[in-house]
Amino acid sequence: MKMNVLKGALATTLILALVAFTNTVEKKQVDVKESTILWEGEKLTGSHSGTINLEDGFFLMENGELIGGEFTADMTSIDVTDLKGDSRNDLMGHLKSDDFFGVETHKTAKFVITTVAKKGDVYGVSGDLTIKGNNNPIAFDLTMTKNSATTNLSIDRTKYNVRYGSGTFFDNLGDKTIYDEFNLAINLKF
Known about the structure:
The protein has two helices and nine strands; from the N terminus they run H-E-E-E-E-H-E-E-E-E-E. The chain is elongated and about 55 Å long. It is 17% helix and 53% strand. The protein has one domain (24-189): Lipocalin. The longest helix is centred in the N-terminal third of the chain and has 21 residues, at 2-22.
């Protein structure tokens, strides 16, 4: 009887080991040159838009399903696409200054996926976003295909100590008020 119990335990161990080896985690590296991050910030009198380059990123997949990932944006690459000449250069300089993203000190922003839940063809993604050294949780929907992932999300900049022109923190701004949330349209290729 003791021998049968040992044989059963050995068989169970072998089956579990085989299952563990068949559930491999794949790291899908994002093609940073083909991927895009578009931003838009609004103010009382209009809006501005531009791009930010992705520095690095990957998804973790298990049996073809998303389980994690990590992404780093190059904050020094902030570009303004809706203005030209001195106006463009002035706004880019201001966005890179300590009033906004302080890119001299905080060269990157980072997002780490902490939980994933699949809803049909869309993933509900939660994770930690770090901008300007401040870390906060965010959640959004992500659509994935075989070679791409897309999302649109809004970020409350004041949670990351980006408060310039915020009506939440400053009075009497009038038409100089800049809305707290900025929008990102992200298209990742892999």
